Amino acid sequence: MAIKNLQDLFVHTLKDIYFAEKQIVQALPKMAEKASDGELKKLFETHLEETRGHVDRLEAVFGLVNERPEGERCPAIEGIIEEAEELMGEIQDADTRDTAMTAAAQAVEHYEMARYGTLVAWAELLGHKDAARRLSETLEEEKAADAKLTKAGESKLNKQAA
Amino acid sequence: MAIKNLQDLFVHTLKDIYFAEKQIVQALPKMAEKASDGELKKLFETHLEETRGHVDRLEAVFGLVNERPEGERCPAIEGIIEEAEELMGEIQDADTRDTAMTAAAQAVEHYEMARYGTLVAWAELLGHKDAARRLSETLEEEKAADAKLTKAGESKLNKQAA
Fold it and tell me: Is pTM, for the whole model, over 0.90?
């Protein structure tokens, strides 16, 4: 699709994050399975449920702007997940692997925060008020997930250090 | 290199962000050249200088932890930059392209904030106090760059909308 204006760029970016969310739905169960710390495992499982909700919410947003839900390949999320899976496969020590997965998940959250932040600003400017509201709900959930990961990472590390 | 503990993971992640910063040094001049808005062009140029400083600072951090500065391929930054370059090449309309480049640069900043945030926490825990201090200087500069991009994006969009 040719991107001629902000509306096109908005729809393109919706498709990018829709593809990304679906990749994250695929990646999180593997991360939950590999996590040895119970709190981290639970965090990944809870975030999987949330992420499924983000996919549904994006489908609603596509509807609100009269577009068909469709993904567009997002090399950024592919790269971020590739790195996470490499580390997960490579690291034998359970504590170190948990710490690496926590950091990888935070890189995912940061990518999403960047994208949703942009999408909210553009939706508002384009007058898509309902879409902006739905997108900012997801943005807040991504921020909260990142904060929980920071906390889990710190408590895990402090336990190891003790 | 086999990652057996937090120190290894710290060094691995240093190499990842060192590779990433060097990729960003390659990408920013192209973005500055493509930017049609003077403020945005200036922002990319200033951030290029800052990024060169981050490369030097990372080299100092490697020295502080007795490691040789070395990059390790970072598929995440490759993906983020690939997306940025695709959009830069595709979009004909100058305002829309500027907006897309601003958003792409924010995705880069967010990736870096995630990585430096993690590195600072690990450096502190590992007792690398000087490294932690240097890394948090860069973290603050990345946050500031992101905030400037948000402001530039908003003012650009508001001008277009007016």
Answer: yes
